[in-house]
């Protein structure tokens, strides 16, 4: 407690000033100097919720900027407040990927920070393996007696951060990350690709899978990492090793993206990874699709399809793993009210035995999860049901944003929005959270539909058809450092200005 005894004479004023300086020699992350690494676009929209959500989300993203204590030159986003304000491979990568329309600076910092901590040896306790991208970084070992978790300070228990790192590098390159910065990361790219074909597929069946061999780490190592997240439709739990559906999509996309980078920079191995991707797609088609007409959540230790209907399959959209017809089938499946009837996309179908609207991963709605599916629907380029579902999910998130004061939480309950006037909060949700705040930019990107490919000098402009969100203008996007504006009128006609020379947009194929 601080106290001052002050005497103030009549007609006089006294000003007290004090400050605090904290020095933490054990800190592994620190606040960065200077302003954010991304642009702050000016958004105008018929739907004022888009404007308010963008404004609040960009404020929140600034508050989550971090650097490594010993390497202040590279900025990344801490996963969320209050539980995860540190470097998280998966979360930091997804947030940087969603923010690419605002510039490549954050992506570059995130890629470099994670590359410096890329695995170099096999360690069952930490989950480290050569080429693997880490999961989380703490100042000391993490011991949670109530759950049995005992995680080392640098923990690698994630199955998806490595392919997502590759995808981020490729996408940043297409948005204009300078060649010199890409080239400096190619050794890390080659190591990450090597992990896909070795330790990432421990049993050699051609799929990426995980198992916690230490008995003290995370039992589930995809983004749904709670202990009961991987269930069959009857509610029973799957036993590891687990091969998650969406991770195979990430692996396919990473292999194709990695091949493109290797070829563009004159490195060997492109054909190997294109062959890997083609074989993976065939194998996935044979093993994952279930009788209900959708891909299973996962394969269990006996290679049985875990037949729960979940949001995970929405992450396959736009990865290239699926045929056009398969993408439309998934869009139709997710459009069922049992999946899309909440304020966003439910993590599990309301028709499944394991469903609970307040379950962490089995029925709740996660902001970033819904945004990833919206982005995939938009990237897939299919009209009709895909565009309608992207619009419906966006409207669900906008309704949630309004209820939460435009600071979208990590997750909220998956109750039916036709029965509930507003979403029910999840008690322990992070708020703000990086990938939830970044979802606002993902929504704007899906709506405007700007897809540049700087290395090839091509740009596609493919907004959601029919301007389902009304007129929209986003001024101050960034392509190869150039400020770019996209406007869509109420008829759905889109215009883009400011693209670098030679990158005039062309119709989508």
UniProtKB/TrEMBL annotation:
Q: Specify the Mannosylglycerate hydrolase MGH1-like glycoside hydrolase domain's residue ranges.
A: 178-395
GO BP terms: carbohydrate metabolic process
The record, for InterPro entries, names:
6-hairpin_glycosidase_sf, 6hp_glycosidase-like_sf, MGH1-like_GH
Name the Pfam families on file.
Answer: MGH1-like_GH
Domain of life of the native organism:
Bacteria
User: What is the protein name given in its UniProt record?
Assistant: Amylo-alpha-1,6-glucosidase
Species the sequence originates in? [Actinomadura] parvosata subsp. kistnae
């Amino acid at each position: 407690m601080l106290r001052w005894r002050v005497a103030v004479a009549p007609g006089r004023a006294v000003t007290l000033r004090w400050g605090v300086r904290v020095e933490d020699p054990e800190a592994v992350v620190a606040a960065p100097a200077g302003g954010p690494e991304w642009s702050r676009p000016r958004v105008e929209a018929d739907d004022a919720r888009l404007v308010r959500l963008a404004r609040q989300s960009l404020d929140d993203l600034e508050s989550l900027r971090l650097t490594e204590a010993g390497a202040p030159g590279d900025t990344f986003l801490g996963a969320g407040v209050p539980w995860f304000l540190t470097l998280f491979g998966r979360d930091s990568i997804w947030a940087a990927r969603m923010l690419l329309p605002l510039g490549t600076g954050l992506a570059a910092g995130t890629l470099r920070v994670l590359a410096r901590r890329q695995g170099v040896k096999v360690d069952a306790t930490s989950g480290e393996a050569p080429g693997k991208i880490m999961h989380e970084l703490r100042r000391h070992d993490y011991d949670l007696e109530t759950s049995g978790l005992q995680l080392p300070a640098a923990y690698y228990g994630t199955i998806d951060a490595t392919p997502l790192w590759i995808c981020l590098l490729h996408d940043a390159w297409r948005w204009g990350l300078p060649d010199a910065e890409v080239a400096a990361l190619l050794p890390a790219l080659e190591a990450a690709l090597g992990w896909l074909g070795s330790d990432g597929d421990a049993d050699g069946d051609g799929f990426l899978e995980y198992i916690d061999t230490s008995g003290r780490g995370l039992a589930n190592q995809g983004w749904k990492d709670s202990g009961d997240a991987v269930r069959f439709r009857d509610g029973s739990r799957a036993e590891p090793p687990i091969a998650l559906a969406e991770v195979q999509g990430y692996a396919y996309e990473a292999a194709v993206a990695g091949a493109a980078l290797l070829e563009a920079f004159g490195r060997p191995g492109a054909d190997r990874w294109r062959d890997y991707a083609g074989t993976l797609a065939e194998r996935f088609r044979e093993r994952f699709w279930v009788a209900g007409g959708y891909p299973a959540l996962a394969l269990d230790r006996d290679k049985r399809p875990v037949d729960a209907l979940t949001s995970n399959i929405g992450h396959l959209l736009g990865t290239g793993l699926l045929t056009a017809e398969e993408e439309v089938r998934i869009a139709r499946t997710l459009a069922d009210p049992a999946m899309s009837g909440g304020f966003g996309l439910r993590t599990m179908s309301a028709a499944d035995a394991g469903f609970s609207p307040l379950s962490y991963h089995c029925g709740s709605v996660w902001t970033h999860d819904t945004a990833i599916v919206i982005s995939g629907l938009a990237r897939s380029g299919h009209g009709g049901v895909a565009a309608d579902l992207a619009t419906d999910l966006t409207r669900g998130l906008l309704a949630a944003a309004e209820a939460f004061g435009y600071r979208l939480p990590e997750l909220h309950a998956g109750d039916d929005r036709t029965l509930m006037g507003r979403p029910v909060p999840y008690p322990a949700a992070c708020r703000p959270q990086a990938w939830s705040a970044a979802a606002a930019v993902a929504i704007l990107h899906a709506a405007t539909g700007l897809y540049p490919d700087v290395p090839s000098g091509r740009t596609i402009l493919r907004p959601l058809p029919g301007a389902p969100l009304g007129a929209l203008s986003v001024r101050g996007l960034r392509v190869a450092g150039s400020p770019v504006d996209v406007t869509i009128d109420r008829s759905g006609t889109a215009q883009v200005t400011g693209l670098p020379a030679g990158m005039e947009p062309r119709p989508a194929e």
